[in-house]
Amino acid sequence: MSSSVITFDRVWKKFERGEGHNSLRDLVPAVLSKFWRPKPADELQDQQFWAVRDVSFEVRPGEALGIIGPNGAGKSTSLKLLTRIMRPTRGSCSIVGRTGALIEVAAGFHPDLTGRENVFLQGAIMGMKRADIVRKMDAIVEFSGLNDFIDTQVKRYSSGMNARLGFSIAANLEPDALVIDEVLAVGDMAFQQRCIDRMEDFKRAGVAIVFVSHNLQAVSTLCNHALFLAGTARAYGHPDDVIRAYVASEDAAAESANNDAVRIQVVRLLDDRGSVVSGPVDPGSLLTLRTTCAPTVQAKNVTFEFMVYRSTDNLLVYNGHFTNAEIGLAEIRPGANFDVHFRFKANLTRGHYRAVIRIYDNIIQRFLAEACPPATFVIEELQTWSGIAHLAVEASANAMSPVPAGVVEQSS
Predict the structure, then answer these.
(1) What is the mean pLDDT of residues 336-341?
(2) Which residues make Cβ contacts (< 8 Å) with residue 318, sequence separation at least 6?
(3) Whole-angstrom Cα distance, residue 234 to residue 255?
(4) 339, 338, 341: which is closest to 355 by C-alpha?
């Protein structure tokens, strides 16, 4: 780990669930009990729980680590431990060099100071000289887009304005390491893209980056490694593999209780050559979702539902229905396994997606099965700014001859 800028080595952190003491009568026994019945610091006492359990990672110069996971998984706690806002119960963590950090929107800002004054405050906290902060001021203000509000007290700022200023400070004061928490969840799309572009610049410049985000597309695009955190490390490695594990975990938690009626044994996503999709695919690629089903019930009127969701925001981008007669299946019956193939063109913009099937009995009006975990895939392309549908737009321009002076151009 000697070459790492950021080190998180077997870290544990415990907290105590809120237990208020509203009177001296309640407080004194509570304090005395800790003295008379002491327990080792690394053991849980009453009302305590582990927020982070035995988590390790390292980030070298020019690398970015994305941390993903559900709410309450210990993601923000890990960043606070890393930046020494908190101390770990066990283990150690460190950052070598100057750190640019945005852990919480407006955290560290003095509400009665202006945006400009807070830039000087944050720069001083980072150990920068006043002359260096002055030299960077124009770049910070320009990046944030807050030219008209930089001399306004930050207590008048919206959450998006606070995020703009916080990221601009962290990103413009020449850090060796950048630690960011959910900056891509606030601010408009143009600012979010500028944040991603700036982090790409930092990677090329050798800055080590750790950022927490629910934006799985950004994690897939920007990061060298990803960590799926749920109290403990559930998956660590290549971003697409970790995202796939996270999405599968989230869907498994919501799995239908009726899946025993038709057991979906195999779910595979295949390319146009029949090979299992293992990496990013281009927009418009021909894909096939193949499922092997093992019924335990009989049904003659069944609907097969094919859905595609964008994992980033759980947006439903397609929902198609096909009856068993339409796909050439007379009925389903116990012991008669069958395959279902859904062929589709992935006319989608860049991002992380998952394909799901559900089987519905139209007679008894009940879901018989839901493919879980689903098949996941990543669309890789760089042209679209936003949206879902990939329209294969081709842009071109023609140089126009200048109109000679004194000549009036007639419109046809």
Answers:
(1) 94
(2) 306, 307, 308, 344
(3) 19
(4) 341
CA distances in angstroms from 303 to 21, 251, 318, 372, listed in the order given = 58, 21, 16, 17
Helix (H), strand (E) at residue 361: strand 351-361
Ranges 183-197, 200-214, 367-381, most confident: 200-214
Cβ contacts of 342 within 8 Å, gap of 6 or more: 288, 289, 306, 355, 357
**pLDDT at position 380:** 84
Each residue of 241-283: pLDDT tens digit? 888 788 777 666 555 444 568 888 888 999 999 999 988 899 9
3-state secondary structure of 334: coil
Q: What's the CA gap between 373 and 250, in Å, rounded?
A: 9
β partners of residue 11: 55
Do 54 and 183 lie in a common domain?
A: yes
Contact 160, 182 (CB under 8 A): no
Among the ranges given (49-53, 105-109, 244-248), the one the predictor scored with the smallest mean pLDDT: 105-109
Interior/surface letters 182-217, b for 16+ CB within 10 angstroms, e for the rest: bbbebbeeebbebbbebbeebbeeebbbbbbbbbbb
The average confidence (pLDDT) of the chain is 83
Q: How far is CA 98 from the centre of its chain?
A: 25
User: Is the CB of residue 403 less than 8 Å from the CB of residue 323?
Assistant: no
Structural domain including 340 reads 254-379
In terms of domains, do 193 and 143 share one? yes
Provide the Cα torsion 214, 217, 221, 226; round to 10°. Answer: 40
Both structure tokens of 258 = 């009726």
- pTM exceeds 0.70, yes or no: no
Whichever domain contains 297, its CATH number is 2.70.50.60
What's the CATH number where 131 sits? 3.40.50.300
Q: What angle do CA 316, 319, 325 make, to 5 degrees?
A: 160
Q: How many domains does the chain have?
A: 2
- CA dist 364 → 88, 328, 338 (Å): 55, 21, 21
Contact residues for 165 (Cβ-Cβ < 8 A; gap 6+): 109, 115, 118, 119, 140, 144, 146, 154, 157
Q: Which residue has the tokens 């100071």?
A: 113
Q: What percent of the chain has pLDDT over 70?
A: 84
pLDDT tens digits for range 157-182: 987 888 888 888 877 877 889 888 87
